[in-house]
């Protein structure tokens, strides 16, 4: 397998091509992913003088039998941008490798071992009731966001609002691989519906579309015959 280096609206000097070959160690990459098919490096330059500190951009695209892995970075020169992009690529490759390894090495946990592997798991007292039920009256309740939480539980509520333009499914998959996440929330440009793409097992993807049904909304409305109010 060779590394393909190309420039977009810019020339790529031979010295930089040699640096790419040295920086992206193919043997190391193939140890992390033995099914690599191609490795492309694209260099581009931003002509805007106001972005002089980020004028050179390097995007690395690794294609294999699994998901496409991309890493990009921008800096004041292409060599620094390549170093940053290579670090991101290495981190994502290691993440994928560790995920595959953990799936293969996973084993069943016996019932006796559950408390050792699952923090906060319910335990039984001498009468057979759970310790949680026994001490429920003494557990303080607090408000976390819009929820009521008993005790110090590991529940963390954080709300985020993002502004994003509608995009196609292909664009959403690209953005998901770009940020290195296992899922990506977007608005479908064709249906205008909130949707989520996510990575499934065996290196394939899934997509979930959320569609509003006015009949269901009315059926579950407090004003609709007191359905929720009782």
Automatic annotation (TrEMBL):
It comes from the Bacteria. GO terms for biological process: negative regulation of translational elongation. It is found in: Cytoplasm. InterPro entries: HPF/YfiA_ribosome-assoc, HPF_long/plastid, RHF-like, RHF/RaiA, Ribosom_S30AE_C, Ribosom_S30AE_C_sf. Residues 153-207 form the Sigma 54 modulation/S30EA ribosomal protein C-terminal domain. Its main location: cytoplasm. Keywords: Cytoplasm, Translation regulation. SUPFAM superfamilies: Ribosome binding protein Y (YfiA homologue) (SSF69754). Pfam families: Ribosom_S30AE_C, Ribosomal_S30AE. GO terms for molecular function: ribosomal small subunit binding. Gene3D superfamilies: Ribosome hibernation promotion factor-like, Sigma 54 modulation/S30EA ribosomal protein, C-terminal domain. The keyword NADP does not apply. GO terms for cellular component: cytosolic small ribosomal subunit. Required for dimerization of active 70S ribosomes into 100S ribosomes in stationary phase; 100S ribosomes are translationally inactive and sometimes present during exponential growth. Belongs to the HPF/YfiA ribosome-associated protein family. Long HPF subfamily. Interacts with 100S ribosomes. This is Ribosome hibernation promoting factor. It comes from Streptomyces mexicanus.
